[in-house]
Amino acid sequence: MSTVIDTRSKFPSSRLRLLAVALLVFAGACAVNPVSQKREIVLVSVEDEIKMGDEAAAEVERDVGFYENQRIDGYLDAIGARLEEFSPWKDVGYDFYVVEMIEPNAFALPGGHVYVSRGLLALMNDEAELAGVVGHEMGHVAARHAVQRMTRAAPVGVLTGITSGIVGMVSPALGSATAGIGGLTNALVVSPYSRSQENEADEIGQSMAAQAGWDPAALTAFLETLGKEEALSSDGKRPPTFLSSHPSTPSRIEKTAERAGTLQRAATPPIAKGRDAFLQYLNGLPVGPRAAEGVFIEERFLHPDMKLALSFPEGWKTQNTRNFVVGVSKDEKAAIVLLLHGEGTDPAQAGRDFLEQEVKMRPQDIEVTATTIGGLPAARSTLSTRDQEVRLAWIAQGGRIFRLMGLVKRGSSSSHDEDIQAAISSYRVLGTAERAEIREDRLRLIEAKKGETLAGLIERVDGQWEAPQAAVANGLREDRVLEAGRLVKMPISERY
Fold first, then answer.
1. Does residue 192 sit in the same domain as residue 302?
2. Considering its fold, how many domains does the chain have in total?
3. Is the same domain home to 318 and 453?
4. Angle at which helices 70-84 and 127-142 cross, to 10°
5. Both 367 and 472 in a single domain?
């Protein structure tokens, strides 16, 4: 849960909705494709496409967030700038970002916004692999693929992996902050590309990479890495990854390999001189959840920067997103949501304002009771709708007001309400002992010892990857005997 989100905002905006409607209105327009140079039916003008991309980019920044590291940002910008010189579409300026996504993913938005995730970087071993992926995404932009596919909108919440139970339970008035990423961004990011679009983006990206001096075969190698990583993680419950919207088929790998053999590579040297120099950019990269956004330790949610703690019912499915923290009962008939309501010190007034302005209750019908929770100023209220009972609490801490919402479907077990009341009452200031429990996995470069195996190295440094995952992430066979001094990427658990 981030400290910078105003959860009271509504998204997608009315402007985005109007743009979505405009897609249908302008469906008959024609334009020259920047890549093929052929006239084709397009959905929107270039100006509207760029505008749409800018608005969707604002959603990504707000709802996904950026991993801000000056060294990595500058490096990614340098790779992107070199590729941009050879882009077939000169009407857009490209921008490059590392996003706060655990899963290995990369995507692009209309107008030149290109994103790679932390999870994707952790799997890379060579600058040319990163250039190949970035070039591929720039290829989608240049060929205007995102606009072509955006009518196939993905369901709300798909990027964050929230269970359907919470999406269906939370009413529009109470759920504006729990809607996940906006529908437009889902349509642009998650909807799968067609086979022809993938092939075209591969062709553009590999051509750009070769002209810029990188090995175009690196894209093939990284697609193989992603396929292996996906096989290790295929439990059916994972949020979308690069391969969800960019399917990696044997034929695609074969085509990229064949194409690489036909491309002439420029003599321009790489930015990072060799694998070890490239890996130095990844040293310290967080792997998995960020402690700065709060962490779950079993059923407890602990946020070190906001200095708060909350205990969810045992056995509930929990998830921490950039906008909110949620727990859902096993039968999906009850939920608890914690979010940052806003700045302030008067929880009772915050509650009254919320019920009047957001829920649209008449002032004479509002009942908010001042109280304390965890020794902090608080206020409580209850609501009943046709489908559910809602328990609300506002708690003031450190100049901020946090809102807790407990929702129970009508006709469900009374134990759900007891669980919700206990969870709300468990809200507390994070203590020294609990804060000391918070750890974060960071990618570190470990020098192998002569004759050491991956399993032996993992045991020596208490690495957080199992040997199969370490092998895939480092481009090694699991049984390989390592040479002395070889750098091996390995997440190490470190105190936050």
1. no
2. 3
3. no
4. 60
5. no
Contact 315, 306 (CB under 8 A): no
Q: Say yes or no: 339 and 453 in one domain.
A: no
Q: How far apart are CA 367 and CA 351, in angstroms?
A: 9
Q: Do 461 and 490 touch, CB atoms closer than 8 A?
A: yes
Question: Which are the contacts of 466, defined by CB distance < 8 A and separation ≥ 6?
Answer: 458
Q: Which two tokens stand for residue 305?
A: 């920067």
* Arithmetic mean of pLDDT, 425-448: 97
User: Any bridge partners for residue 320, and if so which?
Assistant: 325
- Per-residue pLDDT tens digits for 342-378: 999 999 999 999 999 988 999 999 999 999 999 999 9
Confidence of residue 22 (pLDDT cuts 50, 70, 90): very low
CATH of residue 456's domain is 3.10.350
- Domain of 233, in residue numbers: 14-280
Residue 266 shares a structural domain with residue 352: no
Report the amino acid identity of residue 133.
V
Dist CA 317 CA 262 (whole Å)? 50
Q: What is the mean pLDDT of residues 69-87?
A: 97
Residue 332: inside a domain: yes
pLDDT at res. 485: 97
* Residue 55 confidence (pLDDT) above 60: yes
* Phi, psi for 34 (deg, rounded to 5): -60, -25
- Work out whether the CA dihedral 166, 289, 341, 157 comes out positive or negative: negative
- Residues sharing a CB contact under 8 Å with residue 328, sequence separation 6 or more, in sequence order: 163, 165, 166, 316, 317, 318, 334, 335
Contact criterion met (CB below 8 Å) for 170 and 337: yes
Q: Give the range among 151-155, 340-344, 459-463 with minimum mean pLDDT.
A: 151-155
SS3 48: helix
Q: pLDDT, tens digit, for every residue of 173-184?
A: 344 433 443 454
Whether 6 maps to a domain, the answer reads: no
Q: Which element (helix H / strand E) includes 165? A: helix 164-169
Q: What percent of the chain clears pLDDT 90, i.e. is strictly above it?
A: 62
Q: Report how far apart the first and last C-alpha atoms of the chain are (Å, whole number).
A: 16
- Considering the domain architecture, whether residues 266 and 349 belong to the same structural domain is answered as no
For all residues of the chain together, what is the average pLDDT?
84
Give the C-alpha separation, 308 to 398, whole Å. Answer: 10
pLDDT (0 to 100) of residue 186: 52
What is the Cα–Cα distance from 317 to 335, expressed in whole angstroms? Answer: 9
Query: Which residues, in sequence order, are bridge partners of residue 337?
Result: 326, 405
